[in-house]
Amino acid sequence: MIRRAWVNGTLFEQGEIAPISVMDRGLAYGDGLFETIRIESGRPVLLPLHLARLKASATVLGITCDTVTLEDAFIDFIAECGDAAAKIILTRGDSDRGYLPDPEAPSSLIFLLYPAMNWPAELACEGVVAAVCQQPLGISPMLAGHKHLNRLEQVLLRQELAGFAGAHEALVSDVDGHVVEGVFSNVFWIQHGIVYTPCLNRAGVRGVMRQFLLQEMSRLGLQLCEGNYTVTDVLAADEVFFCNSLYGIWPARQMAGVECQPGPITRRLQQCWSEMLGT
Length: 279
Prior knowledge:
alpha+beta; D-amino Acid Aminotransferase, Chain A, domain 1; D-amino Acid Aminotransferase, Chain A, domain 2; 2 domains; nine-stranded mixed sheet; six-stranded antiparallel sheet; 8 helices; 15 strands
């Protein structure tokens, strides 16, 4: 349930109806971007990385985004919220019918505040069961990496994941058979001390948690390889973990029926995450 909403400068408390224009291009075409942010004791975790990604993607898509004003308004919006999850939605704004946007139309900005996501602690400690989705992601270099509002593929994949009894996540590949990500996470694996992760220049989202971990891996001197890999490559790994900015890091304890264990590199990166959170 939404605790609070903010639409283009107007605040709506829980239970109030927050109106959205029926001409908004985010509604009509998914023409926009979003960020989902963990709020820990009132602090927006990894906010600079979220805002940097939002700004970079908005620049590529040609959507007006003033992150300085946005940040000030967002900090006011989450004031005294405690633990929560928040979403920032930026759309290109209103326009008449047709794909061509109105270059003079202002963008639209929405904030949403949700209760904290209370994932069971054992998922991070003991690990998760992961499946392999059969539905593939399409290849779209123009949109690859960006967290845009076109999430229909993820909706279908999440439905598929729900059909795997006991599975918490699943590997997703593109139409060429290259692993891209999880259904709602990025994925890493370790083989002989080397960290591997998919290259996301044709599909997938460059997650903020992924970016944080890449920085930590560099700081720790870990060897990283980004490239095109298959499910077979992942299943042969010594360690596998999924990550996103809400739950952090989930090691895999089983992948498509293959048993595996959280390993030392995964545990070290989980420690980095805990240190960043101050827990």
